[in-house]
Amino acid sequence: MFSVSCNTFLLWHPAVHHSLLLLRALQQCHTLVLKPDPPGVVKPNRIPYASQCGNNLSIVSPSGWGNVCTSTPVLKEGTLPLLRGSECGLQRVHDPQHILYFFSPASMQRQCELKDQFQSYLSAVVVGGQILRAVDDLVMTSSIGNMEAERQAHSILIDRIGALDASLQEGDTGKDGSESNGMHEVKRWSTWPLYTAMQFVVEEAGLPLGPFPRMAEAYKRLRGSKEVAAHMKLVQRTLAQINVSAGVAEGPLHWPYRGLLREVQRRIADYAELPCMGDIANTVGEKGPLRERVSGARFGLQHTPTRTPWTMQGYH
């Protein structure tokens, strides 16, 4: 069976859950292996970025282990029909999206059928990666102490989450409101890079889902699915098997910066009340008060071209 292994203190990482849930969607037998760490070795410089796990995560194919699951078919109808590990010699990858390198379509007809699955999955990987990289940028800027840079990084993260929420406008429900397509979302590969990114920003980063109703609905629906429930049972069962006396269960199982978004938003709210920000509120141009034209969370550094400043509007 496939083996997904990582250090115990990295169990919070989105790539770990992405790998396990993707293997489940591909209907592959898999297991989670947690490598113990001696107490006290988890240092800040060993904590990987949320957007990349590097060699801290290993995904080993059945050919690499020499044991193929026999209780369940290696591949079922409707999934990739041919394991490619023995053909190309690939036995180990370190990124969830590289799991698909172990497979290849059995025929040109199957290749055409899977083309849309590939494209949508890779697009979801890009979107999820952009959100996680924005979280990494926010971690870096929050350690600098520059509130304008921190507020800009927070703005970029919220913009990307908002874009994901807007893309879920139609959702997985039919025109009559019934979830006719929702029952198939757990079988789509593209579901899991987005779900694991959402899970991370909600449970670890502390994102409130109130401003994002569509994403909140999708997250709640997936969180209660049988696939996610079985996945969480696997994780909890693996943790229960860890020998506590070895000290591996004493390390942090959560992101070291857990709740960062709540702390950043509190600092931004305090910063907005400073006297210098009061001057901004009293500034009026030809198009009205500056506060009404520029969002308080986005004023300062801009990552996109903006309109002509109001002080220069009279020259155009």
Shape estimate: globular
Q: Please identify the structural class as seen in this structure.
A: alpha+beta
User: Widest sheet: strand order?
Assistant: 2-1-3-4
The fraction of residues in strands falls at 5-15%
Low-pLDDT stretches: 64-86, 171-183, 295-305
Keywords: Signal
Signal peptide: 1-31
What descriptors fit this protein?
316 residues, alpha+beta, 2 domains, two-stranded antiparallel ribbon
Describe the structure.
InterPro entries: mt-LAF15-like. Keywords: Signal. Residues 1-31 form the signal peptide. With 316 residues, the chain is of the alpha+beta class. The chain has two domains: 1-104 and 226-255, no CATH class; 109-223 and 259-298, no CATH class. The protein has helices at 14-25, 62-65, 85-88, 108-144, 147-167, 191-204, 213-223, 226-240, 260-272, 275-281, 290-293; strands at 2-7, 30-35, 57-60, 92-93, 284-285, 288-289. A four-stranded mixed β-sheet has the order 2-1-3-4. A two-stranded antiparallel ribbon has the order 5-6. The longest helix has 37 residues, at 108-144.
